[in-house]
Fold:
Amino acid sequence: MGIVVSEFISLDGVVQAPGGPDEDTEGGFVHGGWSHPFFDPEVVGGAVSETLARAGSLLFGRRTWQTMAAAWPERAGDPFADRMNAVEKYVVSATLTDDPAPTWHNTTLIPGREAVARIRELRAADGGDLLIMGSPTLVRTLLHEGLVDELRLMLMPVVLGGGKKLFPEDGILRPMELVSAVGGSTGVQVLTYRPAGTAAGRAAA
Structure:
């Protein structure tokens, strides 16, 4: 399976708390919910639904998983929510110790120290995509390790001026191929990229 990353992202590369004011206020972030004015139901909603339909399983970091686990089980009966609740899920965490499945059905814990090795195994297995939503810390790690096969970015026409960003600042040049681009009525662009060639080494200090 391939690893697909799906993110709402601002023009200045911020992915923190696109969904709501209390989603993630770490670092004093005050713009939670910033994606809502630019959400085009047909273009963005269609892209998110199509991406989820392709997924064989979902992969999250702890913070994003806890946010999702608190929201989606209560939305049963909606086709998208039912898919989110039913699909196999993995959460990477160095702090969760209890079985996460009772909190959100069909979830398996991957201990943080085992994350890269376990995710390599999942990526090598047969099945649909391994889809990551949010989880920027985990995504940065997987980008650094060269394990991301596709980026689907919902680029919103807004500059946030600060917040958690998606890409690692590790000095490595990563060429990407633009596979598709679809514009929405709100100015949003749904952009799909795949790695194009081998990443170049660290930039000179």
Notes: The two ends are 36 Å apart (CA to CA). The first helix runs from residue 43 to 54. The mean pLDDT is 93.
